């Protein structure tokens, strides 16, 4: 049996639950592009934030839950989008997570492809000793959409992979819009 079978089945089941919910098409306007994505209607509006390096990212996720999603669109200073191609997605995700491996249960980064054309890659790590109020899981990933790049992060406490499945469904729904 495929060792990823249970994860894929769970992702399909949970993704189906996301799709069965009332879905809202939302639009994000970045500095150079507009994007549309599908999220459950009850989710609050996107929060726009900036990193310490002044890179803009968007935070979304259901209110009062145990997870939060961050989306970074086409930010070359933060993600090196100038040189990112499909064959480099796994190494891009793995190299970004390598510095935190010493604090995780996992000994190495294991990446997984997702999306209708497997145009995305993610990896999930487990905090070895989360403190009270901290998240147990950290997921990082990237998805190529033509010349656009979406980097995402998920912090969660979902033992059942439901937050991960919902995140992958949202990320897979993102599409660039024409002006």
How is the main sheet built?
A: 7 strands, antiparallel
Quaternary state of the chains: single chain
Classify the fold: give the CATH topology of the domain at 42-163: Protein Transport Mog1p, Chain A
What is the radius of gyration computed over CA atoms, rounded to a whole number of angstroms? 16 Å
Proportion of strand residues: 25-35%
Major sheet: order of its strands?
A: 3-4-5-9-8-7-6
CATH architecture of the domain at 42-163: 3-Layer(aba) Sandwich
The low-confidence parts are: 1-19
Order of helices and strands: HEEEEEHHEEEEHE
Number of strands: 10
- For the record, the CATH class of the domain at 42-163 is Alpha Beta
Shape: globular
SSE map:
Layout: H1 5-20, E1 23-29, E2 34-40, E3 47-50, E4 56-60, E5 67-73, H2 76-79, H3 89-97, E6 111-114, E7 120-126, E8 137-145, E9 148-156, H4 162-173, E10 175-177
Please, could you describe this protein's structure?
The chain is an alpha+beta fold. The chain has a domain of 122 residues: 3-Layer(aba) Sandwich (Protein Transport Mog1p, Chain A). It contains four helices and ten strands, in the order H-E-E-E-E-E-H-H-E-E-E-E-H-E. A seven-stranded antiparallel β-sheet has the order 3-4-5-9-8-7-6, with helices on both faces. A three-stranded antiparallel β-sheet has the order 1-2-10. Strand 3 and strand 4 form a beta hairpin. Helix 1 crosses helix 4. The radius of gyration is 16 Å and the shape is globular.
